[in-house]
Amino acid sequence: MPGSIKLADVAKLAGVSLGTASNAFNRPERVRQEVREQVAAAARKLGYLGPDPKGRLLMGGKAHAIGVLPAGEISVAHAINSPFFRDFMLGVSEICDENRANLLIVSGTKDRKDWAIRNALVDGFILGHTGEVELVSQRHQKVPFVVMDVDAGPDVSSVRIDGRTGARRAAEHLLALGHRRFAILAMSRRPVSPIWHPASDLSRRLVGSFPLDHEKLLGYGDAFEAAGISLDNVPIVESHPPTGWVEAGASMLFERAPKATAILAMSDRHAVAVLVEARRRGIRVPRDLSVVGFDNAPDAVTSDPPLTTVAQPLVEKGRIAARIVFGGGPPRQDILPVELIVRSSTSRPRRQS
Amino acid sequence: MPGSIKLADVAKLAGVSLGTASNAFNRPERVRQEVREQVAAAARKLGYLGPDPKGRLLMGGKAHAIGVLPAGEISVAHAINSPFFRDFMLGVSEICDENRANLLIVSGTKDRKDWAIRNALVDGFILGHTGEVELVSQRHQKVPFVVMDVDAGPDVSSVRIDGRTGARRAAEHLLALGHRRFAILAMSRRPVSPIWHPASDLSRRLVGSFPLDHEKLLGYGDAFEAAGISLDNVPIVESHPPTGWVEAGASMLFERAPKATAILAMSDRHAVAVLVEARRRGIRVPRDLSVVGFDNAPDAVTSDPPLTTVAQPLVEKGRIAARIVFGGGPPRQDILPVELIVRSSTSRPRRQS
DNA sequence: CTGAAAGCGCTTACAG
DNA sequence: CTGAAAGCGCTTACAG
Questions:
Q1: Chain B neighbours among A 92-131 (CB < 8 Å)?
Q2: Which of chain B's residues have a Cβ under 8 Å away from the Cβ of A59?
Q3: With a 7 Å cutoff on the CB, does A1 touch strand C?
């Protein structure tokens, strides 16, 4: 079995000690050229290709990879399939390439991620949830990390966006067009059936959402309030982005909130589901219904009609996050700007009855 | 430093030997419940969260991840951004999810991949090139693997497609429509400027291509021959898929082979580049020019016009490959079927002058 | 510049 | 069921 040659064998054949053999590979400048060549020759003869990373890892070596944990309970498959995630990963992977590191995608339910945070063989993490912060600090081997889209305090690096302002802009845009009857398709991070939050329920809380989603709700509320509308009177459906769940959410919205002339969707994925469901029902967008998305993910441009949405710098966000992980400087909290982009999914409401 | 607690500390506090403590975590059935609880209590008190995977790995433990090496010299960023790769990864990641494993994406130049094959902390590999096979068998820790899109002999598992037949179908389709003047936009796997292979050069070989690409060339040739056309008379441009390179390739094709009424592209990515370049030049597809792609990646449907292309089961291919890695059975060679899909990028040629 | 030794954190036969 | 010992493959002070 040629794979079982170890550094000790090479050392023996070369007639040097184990330590010297190790140095020949890792700190060649500490070894006389002559000896270095003996070791190299022995290694060649034995078919030894260099120190096994498993042994090296134990002494504090690098794994040459960073782990990414997409927010919420989604599978690797769903993550990769999400235009949002893909754009973000584009930025992350650019920086990985620069650092000659590989990319480990960890996804699934909370317990699986928790397991991975403690056990994954990586040099750092991009996290998607505050709860994961504690776990990563409990690791045997400390590694740098950054949390996405949530403030985790001054001691933890985070990169997020101004979701509240973005959401407010979206709602203001619809209000300016003359809309007064709204419905919200909110984000749920968990794989559960869509949840109906009827209007006028004074203490409504999204149940499967993350802080960013709450911020967006507040942002919608800010705009409504300025127009004399109470957020409490706006019906909300909360739904999970992957295919199936989100379409069900869009469908529920049409069933239970048929009077809305405009829908505020917390992601472009949600908005596209509304578009699809509207077409299925013969409702024309934007003539019969206006829809505003969030993120400006690639599908916002390719949808039919192209989405009015709130853009965030997804690729740049990935770059910044990855740089924090590789750079390892002091904790920093970045907040990235958002911007309303008007396309063709919004217009003035039709004359109301 | 709370992270430096090790199993030995837990064992001491619990008043048991190291071996018993290890068993309490890994083979609880071998430990009396009472002792098991002592160990658990000690661990809790010390804030010990389970054996460090680094130590465990050395004794043959699993990394709980598989590595994927996209074919050719592309960055992680480009890989993720490729609709082809994404569909493939969708299948791979589905099976990863089933096996509760994570996904390590290794990309870049050959030497970086070689390094990763020998050193990456994974339990198996999906490879993109025959040359990588030898490296993975040289690993200290043997792991199962599969090679994509190339026959690596009966001892190595591989998953590929019938590229020759697929390419023949593409060319036959154009011939049946009446086309006689062709040009080929071929695949290069390396980041080099487009390469011009003029017609009538008898011994043309693609220089940056993989076996599958040669197969496709042969397939085109099969169809041409049956129609009395020599492949040698068909101009070829070879170009690398990522943005920039491929557009340059398409542009070169228009410059140097302006008389072609139909273009055979070796991937949908290449075909889309032709569509874009055609529009830029005011050439209407399919009226002035027919284009056939390959793969039926997601962008084949969303392009304008939608592409006539040769479909391969990309997602299923990913599933099959991943199952081979996780399943670890005897070597097998799968060849997946292809199928011509006619959309709107092909039509009869205009009356030729 | 080189060697002998200790140790990284854990698991696994082997005795008992 | 439990313990003492050897070892996984390597690196790193520490002497010389």
A1: 93-94, 96-97, 100, 102-108, 112, 116, 118-121
A2: none
A3: no
CATH of domain A161-312+337-341: 3.40.50.2300
pLDDT given for residue A201 in this prediction = 66
Q: Which of A9, A125, A140, A143 to mutate to test the interface with B (most CBs of B within 10 A)?
A: A140
Mean pLDDT across A103-126: 92
The pLDDT of residue A203 is above 80: no
Q: How far is the CA of A92 from the C1' of D6 (A)?
A: 44
Please tell me the distance from the alpha carbon of residue A87 to that of residue B75, in angstroms, as a whole number.
15
**Statement: the CB of B25 is under 7 Å from strand C:** yes
Alpha-carbon distance of A149 to B269, in angstroms, equals 33
Residue B75 with chain A: CB contacts under 8 Å: 93-94, 97
Give residue B328's region: left, alpha or beta (phi > 0; psi -120 to 50). left
pLDDT of residue A185: 98
Homologous superfamily in CATH for domain B65-160: Response regulator (3.40.50.2300)
Please say if the pLDDT value at position B137 is more than 90.
Answer: no
Token code pair at residue B97: 């999810």
Distance between CA atoms of residues A63 and B292, nearest Å: 43
CA distance B86 to B322: 14
Domain at A2-51: CATH code: 1.10.260
Average pLDDT over residues B279-295: 97
Start and end residues for every CATH 1.10.260 domain found in chain B: 2-51
A138 touching B (Cβ < 8 Å): yes
Mean pLDDT of chain B: 93
Mean pLDDT (whole number) for B326-339:
95
B306 secondary structure, DSSP code: P
Record the tokens describing residue B253, joined without a space.
Answer: 């094709």
Query: Whole-model pTM?
Result: 0.91
Q: How far is B53 from chain A (nearest CA, A)?
A: 6
Residue A260 pLDDT: 97
Q: Is the per-residue pLDDT at B353 higher than 90?
A: no
Window 168-197 of B: residues touching A by CB (8 A cutoff) are none
CATH 3.40.50.2300 residue window(s) in chain B = 65-160, 161-312+337-341
Contact (CB<8Å) A58/B53: no
Locate A201 and state its tokens. Answer: 């329920």
* Model confidence at A345: pLDDT above 60: yes
| CA-angle at B118, arms to B113 and B120, nearest 5° | 75
- Closest residue to D10 (CA to C1') is A55
Name the token pair of B293.
């792609």
